[in-house]
Amino acid sequence: MRPGPRNLITDVDGLRVGNARDDKIKTGSTVLVGDVPFTAAVHVMGGAPGTRETDLLAPDKTVQQVDALVLSGGSAFGLDAASGVADALRAEGRGFQVGDQRVPIVPGAILFDLINGGDKAWSDNPYKALGQTALAAASADFDLGSQGAGTGALTAELKGGLGSASLTLDTGVTVGALVAVNPVGNVVGPDGQFWASAFEIGGEFGNRGPVTGFDPAGPLVTKLTPRTATTIAIVATDADLSQAQATRMATAAHDGMARAIVPSHTPHDGDLVFAAATGAKSLTNPDIDMMTLGHAAAACLARAIARGVFHATPAPGDVMPTWAQRFASN
Length: 330
Description:
The chain is α+β, with helices and mostly antiparallel strands and 330 residues long. It has helices at 80-91, 127-136, 243-260, 286-310, 323-327, and strands spanning 15-22, 27-44, 51-52, 65-72, 96-98, 101-103, 108-110, 161-168, 174-181, 232-239, 272-281. It has one domain: L-amino peptidase D-ALA esterase/amidase (4-Layer Sandwich). It has five helices and eleven strands, in the order ββββαβββαβββαβαα. Helix 1 (80-91) crosses helix 2 (127-136) and helix 3 (243-260) packs across helix 4.
């Protein structure tokens, strides 16, 4: 396995990512959109999820494909970002055909970033416009860190961020991850090494090595206000997966979250992983290939989480430092 040419989820051909942010509010939205509809699934392990259109992603439901997936800040307000994306896609003539109407299918998930130092005194919900702006910006290339849904994200002690990573498997199949990192827990040990360090490739988040100075019998390092959390992610592949197989990939990808965040999947996190499969490449050995896809998705997600925090940048009014501010000179 090796990273794709961009080391982004958009190494999966046919997928694009767009970001929009509001630095005054300290929030933003991220859109993953396909050139054509793609198979999608979801798996939730956190205790406090905020979602839109996730029930229809179960394998027994009628709709098997979606037009886009949305990750957003804003808690429940942020669910409106997907409405903006749906409106814009409808204007483009995209969506599920029902008679003479088209209904874009746009599931979404949100994280809590309402008390991160930004000005939240808006009179009109800003997230519909943020969703539309993010969709308009969708491209194969995009920035990491304090971008999109990761703009106002926070970890236990550091700014969070938007992360991504990819792997190309020996079979030629590509897997990628996209994540907005805002957990109750921490992504680094006491000395700034990332919990995900065992999966780092090519110094992509500082090459600091394994965590040291951690006392497993000591207290957990978590946010002082634990309800201000949630890490939301997408794992994607160009493999031809059924919705049931995509659900299995999303489920396996949660291992990557647990490897990169301590603690993860808490009652106060709405930890969620969407899966997207474009179907361009057939599985040659489904039993082995599905095991490998799950492993690759977890590895990509762990790396993406670390990259999101590693690339975060400071901004006026921040309530926490970035990784670079606290550890880069150590």
